[in-house]
Amino acid sequence: MAAVHQVTIALPDWINEVVDWQKTYADDQQKMALAVELSRQNVLRGTGGPFGSAIFAADSGKLISVGVNRVMPMHNSSAHGEMVAIMLAEQRIQSFSLAADGVKRELFTSCEPCAMCLGGTLWSGVKRLVCAATAEDARAIGFDEGPVEASSYQYLADAGVEVVRLVQRDAAAKVLNDYLNHGGTIYNG
Ligand SMILES: [Zn+2]
């Protein structure tokens, strides 16, 4: 096998059927509804694991990027929904930091982040993290969230990242359970 010098992470083809890029997302409920719908569609369409995320400009309610889990299709253990959304948002604004231009941005995710994505959230520069299903919900179907502790969340808080949990938890947890019940792969390394 030849050496590789480049990696691609792409959203599935159906994204624009589900995402309204022009809409103003008025509140947390509308924003989370998109993240959860992305997770649901990703399972229904068989394009990755049961996780969806979206990044918004907090003040305008404009959508900047979305992410869905692409671990298996992209052969990439880093391609969690949150990381995909973060990478695409940074590409869109052409900055390594979503805080560099002073715009407050927020990450909505259908499930509380794993250890990698919690770190990714910190590095991304988003100022608010909103979660639906809990880490326990993910663990309950077999996904290992890694070393996520109360102190991890405290670290984010100390760094100025507001964290909100349990927004539309039931709807998001149902997606996780549907994934398991329909034979979805639990792909822990
Ligand atoms: Zn993750």
Please describe the structure with a list of short key phrases separated by commas or semicolons.
7 helices; binds zinc ion; Cytidine Deaminase, domain 2; five-stranded mixed sheet
Structure description:
With 189 residues, this protein is of the alpha/beta class. It has a single domain, classed as Cytidine Deaminase, domain 2, CATH 3.40.140. 38% of the residues lie in helices and 15% in strands. The protein contains 7 helices and 5 strands; from the N terminus they run H-H-E-E-H-E-H-E-H-H-E-H. It has helices at 15-18, 28-44, 81-93, 115-124, 135-140, 150-158, 169-181; strands at 52-57, 63-68, 105-111, 128-133, 162-164. The protein has a 5-stranded mixed sheet, sandwiched between helices. The chain is globular and about 40 Å long. It binds zinc ion (ZN).
The CATH superfamily label reads: Cytidine Deaminase, domain 2
The total tally of domains equals 1
Ligands in the structure?
zinc ion
CATH top-level class: Alpha Beta
Low-confidence stretches: none
Largest sheet features = 5 strands, mixed
Task: Supply the number of helical segments.
Answer: 7
GO molecular function: guanosine deaminase activity
Pfam families: dCMP_cyt_deam_1 (PF00383)
Protein name: CMP deaminase
Domain CMP/dCMP-type deaminase: 26-156
